[in-house]
Specification:
InterPro entries (chain B): PRTase-like, PRTase_dom, PyrR, PyrR_bifunctional
CATH architecture of chain B: 3-Layer(aba) Sandwich
Keywords (chain B): Glycosyltransferase, Transcription, Transcription regulation, Transferase
EC number (chain B): 2.4.2.9
Number of domains of chain B: 1
Function (chain B): Regulates the transcription of the pyrimidine nucleotide (pyr) operon in response to exogenous pyrimidines. Also displays a weak uracil phosphoribosyltransferase activity which is not physiologically significant.
Order of helices and strands of chain A: HEHEHEHEHEHEEHEHHEHH
Strand content of chain B: 15-25%
Family (chain B): Belongs to the purine/pyrimidine phosphoribosyltransferase family. PyrR subfamily.
Radius of gyration of chain B: 16 Å
CATH topology of the largest domain in chain A: Rossmann fold
Number of strands of chain B: 8
CATH architecture of the largest domain in chain A: 3-Layer(aba) Sandwich
Strand content of chain A: 5-15%
Structural class of chain A: alpha/beta
Structural class of chain B: alpha/beta
Radius of gyration of chain A: 19 Å
Oligomer: heterodimer
CATH topology of chain B: Rossmann fold
Shape of chain B: globular
Number of domains of chain A: 2
Helix content of chain A: 25-40%
CATH superfamily of the largest domain in chain A: Aspartate/ornithine carbamoyltransferase
Number of helices of chain B: 5
Shape of chain A: globular
Strand order of the largest sheet of chain A: 7-6-5-8-9
Largest interface: A-B, 24 and 22 residues
Helix content of chain B: 25-40%
CATH class of chain B: Alpha Beta
Distance between the termini of chain A: 9 Å
Number of helices of chain A: 11
Largest sheet of chain B: 5 strands, parallel
Order of helices and strands of chain B: HEHEHEEHEEEHE
Largest sheet of chain A: 5 strands, parallel
Strand order of the largest sheet of chain B: 3-2-4-5-6
Chain lengths: ~300, ~210
Amino acid sequence: MRHLLSAGDLSLDEATLVLDTAKELAQVGGRSVKKLPTLRGRTVVNLFYEDSTRTRISFEAAAKRMSADVINFSAKGSSVSKGESLKDTALTLQAMGADGVVIRHGASGAARRLSNWVDGAVLNAGDGTHEHPTQALLDAYTMRERMGRLDGLRVAIVGDILHSRVARSNVLLLRTLGAHVTLVAPPTLLPVSVAGWPCEVSYDLDEVLPKSDVVMMLRVQAERMNDAFFPSAREYTRRYGLDGDRFAQLPEHAVVMHPGPMIRGMEISAEVADSPRSTIVEQVTNGVSVRMAVLYLLLGGSESGIGN
Amino acid sequence: MHAQKHADDGDESRAVLEGPEIDRALTRIAHEVLERTKGGADVTLLGIPSGGVPLAQRLAERIERVEDRPVPWGSLDITMYRDDLRLAPARALGRTEIPPEGIDGRTIVLVDDVLFSGRTVRAALDALGDLGRPRAVQLATLVDRGHRELPIRADYVGKNLPTSVRESVTVLLKEIDGRDAVLIGPAKPRAGHAGDTTVQSTHAEGDNR
């Protein structure tokens, strides 16, 4: 049994298989019976150590549409608040016979640690500031649906790159899929390691926008900041927020994405967020299809269809 | 997978049906469908990927030629409903395309290339049930090779082909393989058994259980 821990583990063929599978599974959402019998009798545990609405609900909806049994576990009000370690929680899940574990954890690398302790497939649903591979897959899916291709697409990822697992996963996956990524952020919100990432880096949003097919805005993750990274929210918005004027600089065909949750008026203006060229709501819909595809490919067969 | 199949075309496999015979069988099936459905006003043809899809299209063309009106046709992927999913690595999905008329209240003719154990058809019936409620479901197959494992029979058969369980039956179609033929050959490893590591779906008979 294999896992989905990092978007960088996927080959071009595997990533394309996930996207193609998701495309077929997207039809299920429009049927009278929104359910497939494929994962009947399999148990998927949602192990969430961090607050999450859309990712947890999305994984839950995906698993239920595939007929898997879903057990939700959140750290609040569980044995974790009594002091149980991740390993002991993992062994408990193992003993209960979980076929798949979806984990969201505040510590980078938690998903990989967990994969050493359980037999079931581990799906990383966000580990600290490290990775969030299914988000990158659903972003790539959304781009492919909107733009018709990924190869050669110019993607700008703007905002708090330092604390963003979405940015790292997107950079790795989009590189595999042939897109060109430019990260745009104030120098204080870029990780030190960014020089080694397969992407361009810019500090100037206005210069990057006219050359972008896709702009992905990221939320400033105030909850992970115990330092002053920029003088004020207003100044951040002035230099890195996507407002109507900046939106007008984009090419006609360009789309705006946001992994959510977004702060209107901070990194994105309400006018842009509600524009028909914003894919924010589509991303949520596509997230369910992509997670169904990942669950099917990891749990549906005798061995995983990806990650081998 | 296809490469392996073509390798089988050599001395060991022999053709039991060639292009013109397949054409004639399909023309006959088209007429039978019209007769049995009294003109076929509410007929929708659904091919099971991959081999059944071009066959459904060809049947639709033939019916259209006779009746001078278009017949809705599409494809119905059954991968997610298979009973042997856990015996093989996760497979790539085929396409499901239901024509805009939908399936509620219509006479659905399922089209497949080879009818063997009947398990594919069982899966297709389950898939149809989740899509809606057809008035009736019928089954057309180019080749019926026997060895049913479920109480399922075809309404329209291109050719009954008595085979041994160990033999393999392969249908080649112009749209996929460049030529039309039905080949019978020695056994190939079954999907889900050692040696089959592909995640590609295939219309080779060995998978069509």
